[in-house]
Design goal:
The protein has 16 helices and 16 strands. With 449 residues, the protein is α/β, with parallel strands linked by helices.
């Protein structure tokens, strides 16, 4: 999209976080960030941190050693800025020479003494569990972009971080943390949140498979599987569950409502049934496929006090009692470094799970599955994610979607059926399974699969 241009320093005085980062820059004491993953999200992170004073990349973990340098080139770094390092000593030497280590072994990078904070940009729940816990065990703050890992084992990772005086945070900029900004604002003012969620970005096609979207994915520089994860609703289920487990808001019904509703009508639709809406209870997560909401996020609040309604009516926000507060954008990976900065400078989390999850991401069969089949990954052909209340998921024996990869089908499962422990045997030898089993034991929930 043209020649890379690195902007000049701001012409105005910095305040708040910007001022604190500027001070770190002036003192030559930057926040050093380890980025795990050099794909699309990792490239955004490298580019974003390149623009920010007071922050530097301590290392980029690139398992195949082919993506980091292209990411750095896109960000505007010189060709010799990145150097492949295979020992801690070489990582140290590279950083001291003002180069960026490119590291194949994630454990070497994340545990290095010159790293302040680690960002997981892998998007793979298995990697998120293993490397997330390794990060916390190494005494580093953890910024989790891997929402699939967060909804599976976030509670125990947050508990581990807290017990060790560290920060675990979902990264700023994605829809969950953008919703959280609005949620914190509304609840701080004392108003009840009736519903919170997002506009779905892509067409909603529940039987989507990668082969149908390969051309579009290539055109958008995306992995076809990742694109399908958005199209079939899996990503939306994961994101809404992440919000639920950080706020206590819950899906009103399995899979949520997902109405075709415009921004102007959200407060009339995602409100209680007795007031003409869809919700059977207050305090829900949901999404809309209607036009004009995506790529934004919303919180609907009950602001029924007559004085408040009078003032909001004067401000042209409607008659109430329900009002939609809306952020029309989220900048995904580009905002995540802010979470890393706040973790190091202030010891604060932008978004973290509650001690006990209230929602679970399970799965429905995307096609007729036969006994003996081996399940594939989220966004492929076997299943799609399905958000449920956690207590209902346990009662029905549903399996967390993050555990299904390479699971073995024991009995035929018709398309659209909930995938349960009765019908699928999951791989119990993975770090993700072991950590989830540990979390379930800690919470007293019994076996996870």
């Amino acid at each position: 999209m043209g020649e890379t241009r690195i902007p000049e320093k701001p012409l105005v005085s910095a305040t708040g976080l910007a001022a604190d980062l500027a001070r770190r820059d002036e003192e030559n004491s930057p926040i050093r960030v380890c980025i795990i993953g050099a794909g699309e999200m990792g490239t955004d992170l490298v580019t974003a941190i390149r623009q920010m004073p007071g922050m530097e990349i301590a290392s980029i973990v690139d398992r195949r050693l082919v993506s980091a340098k292209p990411a750095m080139k896109i960000a505007g770094y010189d060709d010799d800025k990145g150097v492949i390092c295979d020992t801690p000593a070489r990582i140290t030497n590279a950083i001291e020479r003002n180069q960026i280590p490119i590291v194949q072994d994630a454990h070497q990078a994340l545990s290095h003494g010159l790293v302040d904070v680690v960002i997981d940009a892998t998007g793979v729940p298995e990697a998120g569990a293993e490397l997330g816990m390794a990060t916390l065990d190494a005494g580093k703050h953890l910024v989790m972009m891997n929402v699939e890992a967060d909804v599976t084992v976030g509670a125990i990772m947050q508990d581990t971080a807290a017990r060790n005086g560290l920060v675990y945070t979902v990264g700023a900029g994605d829809e969950p943390s953008s919703v959280m900004e609005l949620y914190d604002w509304v609840t701080a003012l004392g108003y009840q949140v009736v519903a919170a969620g997002k506009g779905k970005n892509n067409a909603f096609k529940i039987d989507a498979v990668p082969d149908d979207y390969r051309e579009e994915a290539e055109r958008r520089n995306m992995n076809p599987r990742m694109l399908v994860e958005f199209v079939d609703g899996s990503k939306t289920m994961v994101e809404m569950c992440c919000i639920a487990n950080a706020t206590g808001l819950m899906p009103d019904k399995p899979g949520m409502h997902g109405p075709d509703c415009s921004l102007e009508d959200l407060h009339k639709v995602l409100c209680p049934v007795e007031d003409g809406g869809l919700l059977n209870t207050r305090g829900c997560v949901d999404f809309t496929v209607g036009k004009g909401v995506a790529p934004g996020v919303f919180v609907i609040a009950d602001m029924s006090h007559h004085r408040v309604r009078e003032r909001l009516h004067d401000l042209h926000l409607g008659e109430g009692p329900y009002y939609t507060f809306y952020r029309p954008y989220h900048l995904t990976s580009l905002e995540v470094p802010l979470s890393a900065a706040r973790a190091v400078l202030y010891g604060t989390s932008d978004m973290k799970p509650l001690p006990r999850p209230v929602a679970e991401v399970c799965a429905l069969a995307k096609k007729d599955l036969k006994a003996g089949d081996t399940l594939d990954f989220i966004g492929e052909t076997s299943y799609r994610s399905w958000a449920m209340r956690a207590d209902v998921a346990r009662t029905e024996g549903a399996i967390p979607v993050g555990l299904l990869d390479k699971g073995r089908v024991l009995n035929d499962i018709p398309m659209g059926t909930l995938i349960t422990r009765t019908d699928v045997a999951v791989n119990m030898e993975t770090p993700l399974y072991r950590l989830r089993a540990q979390q379930d034991e800690w919470l007293g929930n019994g076996v996870c699969a």
